[in-house]
Design brief:
Elements (H helix, E strand, L loop, with lengths): L29 H10 L3 H13 L6 H14 L2 H13 L2 H4 L2 H13 L3 H10 L5 H13 L3 H13 L8 H12 L2 H13 L6 H13 L3 H10 L5 H13 L3 H13 L6 H14 L2 H13 L6 H13 L3 H10 L5 H13 L3 H13 L6 H13 L3 H13 L6 H13 L3 H10 L5 H13 L3 H13 L6 H13 L3 H13 L6 H13 L3 H13 L6 H14 L2 H13 L6 H13 L3 H10 L5 H13 L3 H13 L6 H14 L2 H13 L7 H13 L3 H10 L6 H14 L2 H8 L1
Helix pairs in contact: 1-2, 1-3, 2-3, 3-4, 3-6, 6-7, 6-8, 7-8, 8-9, 8-10, 9-10, 10-11, 10-12, 11-12, 12-13, 12-14, 13-14, 14-15, 14-16, 15-16, 16-17, 16-18, 17-18, 18-19, 18-20, 19-20, 20-21, 20-22, 22-23, 22-24, 23-24, 24-25, 24-26, 25-26, 26-27, 26-28, 27-28, 28-29, 28-30, 29-30, ...
GO molecular function: RNA binding
Keywords: Repeat
Protein name: Chlororespiratory reduction 21
């Protein structure tokens, strides 16, 4: 410390943490000036003042170095901080080993994410204060070393240092990342005991930790108990709801947030957009996009990607592309979202176009990009492109990525190259459960039940316990190959091992049993599924109804219909079609008509089922009338429609109507008649004593009549004593 600027020799004085270099007025001291410059973000001017001070032979004290280091922390100016550290080391042990300076250095290196230097300096501290602990624990959290962060927190308590409102949020953040609900509750107790529950930062961190531990009710209790709520608290609560699948509650939170006058950030709107996408809530998502524009929020990589994800998920890909184009900076996530959106919507050429644009912008494909491309190749059976994608993975060391390996296996399986799929599986060193399941899915896709069973038992020998997905694939492939007993045994086995069947398990069994002719077992399985509280989906309902139809079990069919009505299950086209078909084939045409009338937006399958029902019940007039009405409302009939209506004409002997329909099928609707259509009309003509016309019609069949038509006409010839034609047909 110096008494004046012109002193020939600096006076000796005890160590102090401040320096008054310019004597005339304390407010003009170097320390005061440097502190002021650092606080105002003028770090380089402060360093310049330090240089000027040194040129005048003034020795800075620990206070000045401390303020400069604090300025570097505020600006995250690592390089400048390292220069100051070098000056400190040159100044000698007295300053370099000063605890105040060392603590500031720990905080600098921790805040600038230089773990080696921070940890080394921290270990040398004589007294590890709460500030240095806060810096180190915060560093571990940012680096993802959450276990180390919590170990540090425990050691801090063990050493008698009480955590403050800077340490606790980081400890809670680590708990959330590791989903340690017990540790989180312990910290919550500490927060209440030490009186930190009034701190908005600690409260927000508690909400976040409970949310990430899937304890949304506890998160809400903390949120409701907060005296003051900042944007972070609201964002954490919205994110907790989205994470727990409570998307409607997440949407309501944003409305409440706006009503309270809390400003929305890009994070807020990103969570809201995720909830909207999950619900398919187009209007709400559009509102979020509008809010982003009204609030002047920049389409950065977070918000821009969230909007693209929303539009892609609800099928508005043109809007997604517009947002993508308007983003000033596009990271690989934004590119991947657009590519994935096009792949999932089946617009494969556009997906490939975006991939080419991505490469032209010198963006590297990552594992997510390659997963989308390989999925595209599998869906389009584009083996050539799939192999090119696989080669790219190998060249860029992405083939060891488990998601990429799984997608590669799936691609080869869909392209019927199971040997290549097996080779990819065997070349992957670290195989997780997902990879094993990918190969099981490949075997199921190709109906290779023996290989699937062998792999299923092999994974258990390799200490990889199968999950419900594994069981689902094996049960599926067994049922596809007609191995019903084996599938039932495996289902019993999974329950004995406490692997809970999910909706897919039940649906696979019900549909598989029905398709294999085990209709009664399928119905019993459906009833068992309801007893355990699994809500059926469209496929399981349709499969159960088809079993009722095949066995003419009207009582069970009515029971399923009652369940659908009581539980407000959507009367979708497949379900409505199955109900109409079931009632018609069980002899209840009026009930079939009642179901038909209840369907709001009637589509072709429902019409076909009703026309078929009328035809089978001999109600030809109603069948023809409904067919005409279907045409009038603009629904284009298909091959099945004509089979049903021609069958009705055949039953009623309506020759002219049948011939007119067959002719209109070609001339009006551009459909090519198949053998079933010709069979109906030939039978119609034969029964109406028009054997010559029936024979003429046979000669118009380009690919020739089949045995069924010939035998039918031959029987009519014998019945009508048309011996000459009968002999010809016999030959």
């Amino acid at each position: 410390q110096s008494s004046g600027i012109n002193s020939a020799k600096p006076l000796k004085s005890p160590l102090c943490t401040s320096l008054h270099e310019i004597a005339p007025a304390p407010q003009n001291s170097y320390l005061h000036q440097i502190t002021s410059l650092c606080k105002n973000g003028l770090l380089q001017q402060a360093v310049g003042l330090l240089t000027s001070m040194e040129s005048r032979n003034f020795r800075p004290g620990s206070g000045i170095y401390g303020e400069l280091l604090h300025g570097c922390v505020l600006e995250r100016a690592l390089f400048t901080g390292q220069q100051i550290h070098a000056r400190i080391l040159k100044s000698g042990e007295l300053i370099a080993r000063n605890e105040f300076v060392e603590a500031k250095l720990v905080i600098l290196y921790a805040k600038c994410d230089v773990p080696e230097a921070a940890i080394l300096l921290f270990s040398r501290l004589g007294t590890q204060s709460v500030f240095s602990w806060a810096a180190i624990i915060g560093l571990f959290c940012r680096l993802g070393s959450n276990e180390d962060a919590l170990l540090g927190f425990c050691e801090m308590l063990k050493n008698g240092v009480s955590p403050d409102n800077f340490v606790l949020p980081n400890a809670l953040k680590a708990c959330g990342a590791l989903q340690l609900i017990g540790f989180s509750r312990g910290l919550h107790g500490y927060v209440v005991k030490m009186g930190f529950n009034g701190c908005v930062f600690v409260g927000s961190s508690l909400v976040d930790a409970y949310g990430k531990c899937d304890q949304v009710e506890d998160a809400r209790k903390v949120f409701d108990g907060m005296l003051e709520r900042n944007t972070i608290a609201w964002n954490s609560m919205i994110a907790a709801y989205v994470r727990s699948g409570l998307n409607r509650e997440a949407l309501q939170m944003l409305y409440d947030m706006r009503a309270d006058g809390i400003e929305q950030t890009p994070i807020t709107l990103s969570s809201f957009l995720s909830a909207s996408a999950n619900l398919g809530a187009v209007e709400e998502g559009l509102q979020a996009h509008a809010l982003a524009i009204l609030n002047g929020l920049e389409l950065d990589t977070i918000l821009g990607s969230s909007i693209i994800h929303f539009y892609a998920k609800v099928g508005l890909l043109e809007e997604a592309e517009l947002v993508f184009r308007s983003m000033l900076e596009k990271d690989v996530v934004a590119w991947n979202l657009l590519i994935c959106g096009y792949v999932q919507s089946g617009e494969f050429q556009k997906a490939l176009h975006v991939c080419r644009l991505m490469r032209s912008e010198n963006m590297r494909f990552d594992s997510v990009t390659l997963t989308s491309i390989l999925s595209l190749c599998g869906d389009t059976l584009n083996l050539k492109l799939g192999r090119e994608g696989h080669c790219y993975c190998i060249r860029n060391s992405l083939d060891s990525d488990l998601a990429v390996a799984s997608s590669t296996i799936s691609m080869y399986a869909k392209c019927n190259r199971i040997t290549s799929a097996i080779r990819v599986f065997e070349s992957t060193t670290h195989r997780d459960l997902v990879l094993w399941n990918s190969l099981l899915a490949a075997y199921a896709e190709l109906r290779l039940s023996g290989e699937a069973l062998k792999l299923f038992y092999q994974m258990q020998l390799d200490s990889v316990p199968p999950n419900v997905i594994s069981y689902n694939y094996v049960i599926m492939v067994l049922l596809r190959n007609g191995k019903v007993d084996e599938a039932k045994d495996l289902f019993s086995q999974m329950q004995a091992l406490d692997v809970l069947p999910n909706l897919i398990t039940w649906t696979t069994l019900i549909s598989g049993l029905a398709q294999n002719g085990f209709g009664y077992d399928a119905i019993l399985m459906f009833r068992q599924m309801l007893r355990v509280g699994i809500r059926p989906n469209t496929v399981s309902v349709v499969s159960a109804l088809s079993a009722c139809t095949a066995l003419a079990l009207l009582q069970y069919g009515r029971t399923i219909h009652g369940y659908i009505t009581r539980h407000d299950l959507c009367l979708s086209v497949p379900v409505a079609t199955s109900l109409v078909d079931m009632y018609a084939k069980c002899g209840c045409i009026c009930e079939a008509k009642n179901v038909f009338d209840l369907v709001g937006n009637k589509e072709l399958p429902v019409y076909n089922a009703m026309i078929s029902g009328y035809a089978s019940h001999g109600r030809t007039v109603e069948a023809l009338s409904l067919f005409k009405h279907m045409e009038d409302v603009g629904i284009e009939p298909d091959s099945i429609s004509f089979t049903c209506v021609l069958s009705a004409c055949n039953h009623a002997g309506l020759v002219s109507e049948g011939l007119e329909l067959l002719n209109g099928m070609v001339t009006k609707h551009g459909l090519k008649p198949c053998m079933e259509h010709y069979s109906c009309v030939v039978s119609l003509l034969a029964k109406s004593d028009n054997l010559d016309k029936a024979y003429e019609l046979l000669q118009t069949i380009a690919y020739g009549p089949d045995a069924h038509i010939l035998v039918s006409l031959l029987a009519s010839c014998k019945e009508k004593h048309e011996m000459e034609l009968g002999e010809y047909l016999t030959e």
